[in-house]
Amino acid sequence: MNIEAVQSLGWVVVNGDFVPASEACISPFDRGFLFADAIYEVTTVVSSTLIDFDPHLARLRRSARAIGLALPWEDHDLQTLHKDLVSRNQLDEGYVYLQVSRGAGLRDFAIDEHMTPTLFMFSQARSVMQTSDAQNGIKVITVPETRWAHRDIKTAALLPASLAKQKAKQAGAQDAWFVEDGRITEGSSNNAFIVTKQREILTRDLGQHVLPGITRAAIIRLAEEQGYQVIERGFTVIEAESATEAFFTSATAFAIPVVEINGHQLSSGKPGPVFQAIRAAYLDHVRSQIP
Predict the structure, then answer these.
(1) Which element (helix H / strand E) includes 169?
(2) pTM recorded for the entire structure
(3) Tell me: the pLDDT tens digits for 118-168?
(4) What is the 8-class DSSP label of residue 254?
């Protein structure tokens, strides 16, 4: 990342202090760097408004409890830092990334319980309301599940997901869906959904095997409000390849249609009507939060 790209990020937050991105420093002995001993959240910003912030904050605290990490900041403090960062960087649309590591110390697999956590935040401009992927759809491949067992914890250990995304890119696709014991768990950075011929919407049930997506929860609620039956269960690769529609959800992409899985075209190669109805409802959900 060159200096111009870093400077374009404007202000960042390091341990509660606002500093220019080009001057931000974190110890090379930080456990987030040495062990990926860190958790994170990404909150979308639309019209300078944080979208679904409270559920993201709740999930951050859930992840912290799961790894035995005590967060020294109050909810109000973290919300204020988010809002101030959006204001300082004049961010209209994009996202805020927050990461908390266990802190810095001598390298040791055993955890020093007296470490002071490291907080790092930055914002980045990005189109989310209107994107080419949402309009045209993407291609997906399936890959074997290679991640650790606790995928319900949002940790910074993202190498397997990154390698899966790279494999998809090399195959001419845009994303990869993980497969474990013959059933799809989730995407490299998203929750996976398919639509059956009976217009049922399937997505993997929650548990240690998938992240409890904030956007996933909102989409399920909105779909049910529109009269769709949402079934939370594992589905096979064959079910996915033969689905009438498919899509994925994430905080920074909202809902994106999948028009091809492993070379099998879905919905005539374009976003289907179920997806379009659900994304429209979600965009209304986003707009309802903007003052």
Answers:
(1) helix 159-170
(2) 0.95
(3) 999 999 999 999 999 999 999 999 999 999 999 999 999 999 999 999 999
(4) E
DSSP line for 185-242: EEESSSEEEEE-TT--EEEPPPSTTS---HHHHHHHHHHHHTT--EEES--BHHHHHT
**Pairwise CA distance, residues 291 & 212, whole Å:** 27
Number of Cβ atoms within 10 Å of the Cβ of 3: 9
Backbone angles phi, psi at 117, to 5 degrees: -60, 150
Encoded amino acid at 61, one letter: R
Q: Where along the chain do its domains lie?
A: 3-125, 132-287
CA nearest 128: which of 94, 78, 87? 94
Structural tokens at position 48: 């300078």
Q: Which residues neighbour 52 within 8 Å (Cβ) at sequence distance 6 or greater?
A: 43, 44, 214, 215, 218, 251, 289
d(CA 50, CA 36): 27
Contact 70, 64 (CB under 8 A): yes
Give the residue numbers annotated as catalytic, written as ranges: 154
C-alpha 77, offset from chain centre: 22
- Whether domain 3-125 has CATH 3.40.50.10490: the reply is no
- Tokens matching residue 41: 């959240």
The pLDDT, as a whole number, for residue 67 is: 97
CATH homologous superfamily of 132-287 equals: D-amino Acid Aminotransferase, subunit A, domain 2 (3.20.10.10)
- CA-derived radius of gyration, the chain: 19
Write the Ramachandran bin of 205: left for phi over 0, alpha for psi from -120 to 50, otherwise beta. beta
Q: With the CA atoms of 210, 180, 171 and 238 taken in that order, what torsion angle do they form, in degrees rounded to the nearest 10?
A: -110
Q: Do domains 3-125 and 132-287 have the same CATH topology?
A: no
